[in-house]
Write a structure and sequence with these properties.
This protein has 147 residues and is mainly alpha-helical. It is 59% helix and 10% strand. Strand 2 (69-74) and strand 3 form a beta hairpin. Helix 1 (3-31) packs antiparallel against helix 4.
C-alpha cells in the first residue's frame, strides 16, 4: 500500500471512529468502571489504536455533563495519585442500549451496500413510489384502493 493510500485509510478509520467513540466508551464503562488510560488500552486491544487520551478526556467530560456517566476518585493500585473513574448512570445505560441498536441497524445496511447484496431497492422503495403516485392501498397485501 502506498503512503497516500495508507493515509487515506487512516483518515477513514479516524472519521468512522469519531462517529462512534462515545458509544465505544459507554460500552467499555458498561463492562466496569474505568479510568482514562484504561480506555486507551482497551480500545487498542480491540484494534482501535487511533485513539489517544487527548481525545478521550474531552468526550468523557461532555458525557458527564450530559448525565450519561458520573465519576469518582479512588486510590491507585500502584500507590500513586487517586484516579478518576467513570461509571454509567441510568441515562448512560439507556443511551448505550439505544446506541447498540442503532449501530446494529446501521452496520447491516452499510455491509449490505458495500458487499453489493441486492440493488438497495426493495419493498420500502415500492411503498415510497406508491405514495408519490397517490396509491393509498396495498394490493400486495390484499387491501383494495377503493374501499
Amino acid at each position: 500500500m502506498t503512503k497516500e493510500l495508507a493515509a487515506t485509510h487512516d483518515q477513514r478509520r479516524s472519521q468512522l471512529l469519531r462517529g462512534v467513540l462515545d458509544l465505544c466508551l459507554l460500552a467499555l464503562i458498561g463492562e466496569r468502571p474505568r479510568y482514562g488510560y484504561e480506555f486507551v488500552e482497551a480500545l487498542t486491544d480491540s484494534g482501535l489504536d487511533l485513539v489517544s487520551e487527548g481525545s478521550i478526556y474531552p468526550l468523557l467530560a461532555r458525557m458527564e455533563r450530559a448525565g450519561l456517566v458520573d465519576s469518582y476518585r479512588a486510590p491507585s493500585a500502584a500507590g500513586g495519585a487517586p484516579r478518576k473513574y467513570y461509571r454509567l448512570t441510568e441515562a448512560g445505560t439507556a443511551e448505550l442500549t439505544a446506541g447498540r441498536a442503532t449501530w446494529s441497524t446501521f452496520t447491516v445496511a452499510v455491509s449490505r451496500t458495500l458487499q453489493g447484496e441486492g440493488d438497495g431497492r426493495g419493498e420500502r422503495d415500492e411503498d415510497e413510489k406508491d405514495a408519490r403516485d397517490g396509491d393509498t392501498g396495498d394490493a400486495r397485501h390484499g387491501t383494495p384502493d377503493d374501499e
